[in-house]
Write a structure and sequence with these properties.
Layout (H helix, E strand, L loop, with lengths): L1 E2 L7 E8 L6 E8 L7 E10 L2 E4 L3 E7 L1 E7 L6 E7 L5 E9 L2 E4 L3 E2 L4 E3 L12 E3 L6 E9 L6 E10 L2 E4 L3 E4 L4 E7 L6 E7 L6 E9 L2 E4 L3 E4 L3 E8 L5 E8 L4 E11 L2 E4 L3 E2 L3 E7 L6 E7 L7 E8 L10 E3 L3 E4 L6 E6 L6 E7 L3 E7 L17 E3 L11 E3 L3 E2 L10 E4 L5 E2 L8 E5 L5 E3 L3
Antiparallel strand pairs: 1-35, 2-3, 3-4, 4-5, 4-6, 7-8, 8-9, 9-10, 9-11, 12-14, 13-14, 14-15, 15-16, 15-17, 18-19, 19-20, 20-21, 20-22, 23-24, 24-25, 25-26, 25-27, 28-29, 29-30, 30-31, 30-32, 33-34, 34-35, 36-37, 38-42, 39-40, 39-41, 41-42
């Protein structure tokens, strides 16, 4: 572990983001507890070379009580990031920042909502990322937050925004649900454009709930809310799994003080399929996906009370076709700090260095560590949008003569198909109900074993 604040000061509400356009560059945002003991909003920039971290000087963006900081680099412009934060009156503000070396400059402070606002559900909430850039549309992002009156009577809202220079503009705010909503988290589908999923604790039941949405410009269309865990939950995290229509959700079960994770597949605005549950054994505070390996998620948090430090856990999701399937493999839990006070944490991957990540935590001082996941082999494919000609009639090995059912024909050696469903060829040669990066329709299922191949 290494201190990211050179004055060994108490820190809180951490967030970290890597610049996808500048290898090894990152920014950490946090509230600095030693500036008059009021928690000034602060960012520090740094670089990573191998496992060595170099930090610049802290740069204050809010000279008063600041909470729920969130920092995210704009993926479309080198050195540009946005930091969102909450002031002492629970209003949500933003500033656009620019990094040059380790020097940070800020644009003017601006409010993104005239409501009393808390971007991270409440000032004591763990580091859920409820602000995310649109990976398919330059300069756009989505933000979920609570808006309304007193802390316990707010509503969960969502809005689409756009960055131009150092200015953000926002579309119409849409209410997700009213009441004592807690712990909102939102994520774009990293594969399918204009789709996102929001997760929250339902105000009437306290159950873990998700709701899909689609975006056109800055207009948001909400889908049907679905309960993903019928138990009292506290914190919520949602991330795209890097596979079309699939997200991974972590929800903290209040009774046992541990978090469960599962895959959530969005079939449409009114249909969601849930994968199998896994007890992580830790209280998850943040989750992020390895940007170079679809389905590989890194969860970080601490163990049950009393806190005994921060831990990391890798869960790889690989099958999203059958409801309630066990669709994951689980790695070993790694303790990356044994500091008993380090209970708030955040994690981010360096997208320019496969498998490399930074985990940060807070206690008597802010600390960071660099980790490296195993670099998995890349699956190669020769699939294009035009070279799919048909499917083999059976399993064959090298050297055997194969019989191929051509386009327009009936493939009768399939298993587990859903009658009436359209199937797509995946880049690894399998079939799924959603397109892969390359959109190639295989055909429509006539039964669980018969697929009518599309005639192009």
């Amino acid at each position: 572990m290494q201190e990211y604040d050179s004055n060994s000061r108490a820190t809180g509400n951490p967030s970290v983001s890597f610049d996808p356009n500048d290898s090894g560059k990152f920014v950490i945002s946090y509230s600095d507890g030693m500036n008059g003991s009021v928690g000034y909003g602060t960012c520090v920039a740094g670089t990573v070379s191998g496992t060595v971290m170099t930090f610049g000087s802290p740069f204050i963006f809010q000279s008063s009580l600041t909470s729920a900081t969130q920092v995210n680099f704009d993926p479309n412009e080198v050195g540009k990031f946005v930091v969102l934060y909450v002031d002492s009156s629970n209003k949500g503000y933003y500033r656009v920042g620019t990094v040059s070396g380790t020097t940070i400059t800020y644009g003017n402070q601006a409010i993104f909502s005239t409501h009393a606002t808390d971007t991270n559900s409440n000032t004591n909430m763990y580091n859920n990322n409820s602000f995310e850039w649109d990976p398919h549309n330059t300069g756009k992002f989505i933000q979920c937050f609570k808006a309304g009156g007193a802390t316990w009577s707010q509503q969960l809202s969502v809005v689409v925004g756009t960055r131009s220079g150092d200015t953000l503009t926002f579309g119409t705010i849409v209410t997700v649900i009213s009441g004592q909503v807690q712990h909102g988290s939102i994520a774009f589908d990293s594969v399918v454009p204009n789709q996102a999923l929001i997760a929250y604790r339902d105000p009437s039941t306290n159950y873990a709930t998700v709701r899909p949405l689609t975006i056109s410009g800055t207009t948001i269309t909400m889908g049907t809310a679905v309960v993903t865990w019928s138990a009292y939950v506290s914190t919520m995290n949602i991330r795209s799994a890097g596979i079309a229509n699939v997200y991974v959700q972590a929800h903290h079960l209040n009774a046992s003080n541990v978090s469960y994770v599962r895959a959530v597949k969005v079939n449409s605005l009114s249909s969601i399929t849930l994968g199998g549950l896994h007890n992580t054994g830790i209280a998850v505070k943040d989750v992020n996906r390895d940007p170079n390996t679809a389905g590989r998620m890194l969860f970080i948090g601490n163990s049950f009370y009393p806190n005994v430090g921060c831990k990391a856990l890798i869960v790889t999701f690989d099958d999203f076709t059958i409801a309630n399937a066990t669709n994951y493999t689980v790695g070993s839990t790694l303790t990356y700090t044994s500091d008993s006070l380090a209970y708030k944490s955040a994690v981010a991957f360096d997208p320019t260095n496969s498998g490399k990540y930074m985990a940060i935590s807070t206690s008597a001082y802010g600390a960071a560590t660099i980790g490296q996941l195993e670099v998995l082999p890349t699956i190669s494919t020769n699939l294009t949008s035009t070279n799919f000609t048909g499917m083999s009639s059976s399993a064959y090995t090298n050297g055997e003569t194969a019989e191929i059912t051509l386009q327009g024909g009936l493939s009768i050696n399939q298993t587990g198909l859903i009658t009436g469903t359209t199937y797509y060829v995946q880049e690894d040669g399998t079939l799924d109900t959603s397109p892969d990066t390359i959109n190639v329709i295989a055909g429509k299922a006539l039964s669980s074993t018969k697929l009518l191949l599309k005639s192009y």
